[in-house]
Amino acid sequence: MAAEIHSRPQSPRPVLLSKVEGHQDAVSAALLIPKEDGVITAGEDRTIRVWLKRDSGQYWPSIYHTMASPCSAMAYHHDSRRIFVGQDNGAIMEFHISEDFNKMNFVKTYPAHQNRVSAITFCLASEWLISTGHDKCISWMCTRSGSMLGRHYFTSWASCLQYDHETQHAFVGDYSGQITLLKLEQNTCSVITTLKGHEGSITSLWWDPVQRLLFSGASDHSIIMWDIGGRKGRTLLLQGHHDKVQAICYIQLTRQLVSCSADGGIAVWNMDISREEAPQWLESDSCQKCEQPFFWNIKQMWDTKTIGLRQHHCRKCGQAVCGKCSTKRSSYPIMGFEFQVRVCDSCFESIKDEDRTSLATFHEGKHNISHMSMDISRGLMVTCGSDRIVKIWDMTPVVGCSLATGFSSR
């Protein structure tokens, strides 16, 4: 008699709806057209394309436009159907797209930067076009006149940008790992503060104006949540990716954070729980558990006639410890550590099995992801990267059910 096979129920995962192929080089940006079965893409092959879903279910290009320089960033304003495309040569070009998405008319060119444009945002209320670039600056320009209103320079390449329309605050991430908060005025700006916490270049930012939370992803594989409007200086660290975090999107309705990394990893983080801040690492000349000297503590080594030890840190308590006092590894999701990290032996004993329950789900995008964008109202996500492929995903299985959130998958 054949043995019974009990299949384990699979955990919910994103559903790949479509693949869009056609670019001849890396796809720099891809955006879903709200309320339409369409995608706008811009690539290093100097093309901007609008893809519409046909009756066959396949996406076909309805617009194919070649630019003078590789396309590096893009912003789309659906109500006015205006597209802004940043280029490798520092210029931003504005187009107006027709109602049937079959025609695109050139409007004007903005001399925004002297080098590659890294991020663009458009504010209709003030008619401002705000952008960052590899010329180490943020610029804001008037879309009525096309003239430059102001510029502010940083010490490193400006890599990403978020803007709060109501307060006129701009958040700029750069290659040094720093985030600068600026207040933009008509022709001037002031630096409010700088945020330092990442050990690698800032690759992505997301601002939630409702809860006043800023999320930053970096090449150090980590994400930090900065509580801008709440308790002063409160930060939460999220570590679950194995490569640089390329894109993030916070869904305020369900208190979930979606992040994508260069190795194709897609993570959905539960932010609707009380998480713990990771402690500051403590400095000491000797192990804070056994008091053995570290290798630079010459005096104690000489006095005790012992060889100095290498310094480590417990991720849970932050104490400076030697290898013998931190022989264990553990995950600790409540503090954002989704994979195993070094903890001291006493902290390891204090972590219960239920404390190791994951607070995020991890999925495989199966392509190099350099950019991601979500249509939160429909629970759809688009990813693209250096493999020249654009993928459209139904994220509703992992970001909330249709009835609870108002999502409909199509």
Could you explain how this protein is built, in words?
By secondary structure, this protein is mainly beta. It has two domains: 15-275 and 359-399, YVTN repeat-like/Quinoprotein amine dehydrogenase (Methylamine Dehydrogenase, Chain H), CATH 2.130.10; 298-356, Herpes Virus-1 (2-Layer Sandwich), CATH 3.30.40. It has four helices and 32 strands. The protein has helices at 298-304, 345-350, 396-399, 402-405; strands at 15-21, 27-32, 38-43, 47-53, 59-66, 71-77, 82-87, 92-97, 104-110, 117-123, 128-133, 137-142, 148-153, 158-164, 169-174, 178-184, 189-196, 202-208, 213-218, 222-227, 235-239, 245-251, 256-261, 265-270, 312-313, 320-321, 328-332, 337-343, 360-364, 371-375, 380-384, 389-394. Strand 10 (117-123) and strand 11 (128-133) form a beta hairpin. It is globular. Mean pLDDT is 90; it is low at 1-9 and 401-410.
Question: Which secondary structure elements does this structure contain, and how are they paired or packed?
Answer:
Blueprint: E1 15-21, E2 27-32, E3 38-43, E4 47-53, E5 59-66, E6 71-77, E7 82-87, E8 92-97, E9 104-110, E10 117-123, E11 128-133, E12 137-142, E13 148-153, E14 158-164, E15 169-174, E16 178-184, E17 189-196, E18 202-208, E19 213-218, E20 222-227, E21 235-239, E22 245-251, E23 256-261, E24 265-270, H1 298-304, E25 312-313, E26 320-321, E27 328-332, E28 337-343, H2 345-350, E29 360-364, E30 371-375, E31 380-384, E32 389-394, H3 396-399, H4 402-405
Antiparallel strand pairs: 1-32, 2-3, 3-4, 4-5, 6-7, 7-8, 8-9, 10-11, 11-12, 12-13, 14-15, 15-16, 16-17, 18-19, 19-20, 20-21, 22-23, 23-24, 24-29, 25-26, 27-28, 30-31, 31-32
